Amino acid sequence: LVDPRGKTISSDSKNAIVFGIDGTGSMVNWPAEIFDRLPLFYQTLSQYRADLEVSFGVIGDATCDSYPLQVNSFGKGVSLEDHINALFPEGGGGGQVSESYELFGYFAMNKVKVPNAVSPFLFICGDEKFYAQVDPAQVEHYIGDKLQAPLDSKKVLEGLMQKFDMYFLQKPYGNAGDPRVTAEVREHWANAIGPQRVIALPSYDRVVDIAMGIVAKKWGQFGDFKENL
After folding, report:
1. Beta bridge partner(s), residue 21
2. Residue-wise pLDDT tens digits, 176-220
3. What are phi and psi of 151, to 5 degrees?
4. Which of 92, 97, 67, 87 is nearest to 19 (CA)?
């Protein structure tokens, strides 16, 4: 279900959301806790827009992990349970305070089709930096495309922001939440996508709530959402 190689995912919905979650070791127990709450993400937001479709994915480190890019097709309703269960947070990563968010970004830019979406959302939840370049060897191995040369990751993110309403949901770095590294990572992402799109997360049990709140606000449903919450 989640193998990205040779895959293109598409949604004809006016309301499509892509949600990628870092599944490496520095995320500790956060991925499992987030996965537990992802069904609520769809259940709550589909009350406001019945045609909502969501694609869930996992991001790892393509320099060392076995499954650094996992992407589900778009789905809705009970099918999302199978999609979530298919995701495998490997718990790896290479310890260089960077993960392959840019590889996920390349996939979202080139292999995700949302022709009817009015304001599609892209959420990336993680705690590290993206690598400076999209590596052609990684793209060919995991996605199947052939690139002539490396791509500037910032340029890929700029393209994504024209295609999606994009946010980086930032977990404090590591087990204990190292404030120095957390600030470095925040600045790294803020320089690429703007500080207003980097959202600090207080705890694992608020990740899905915060993402839902961002969507509900954009949809003009924030009052109802606060009441539900």
Report:
1. 58, 125
2. 789 999 999 999 999 999 999 999 999 999 999 999 999 999 999
3. -105, 145
4. 87
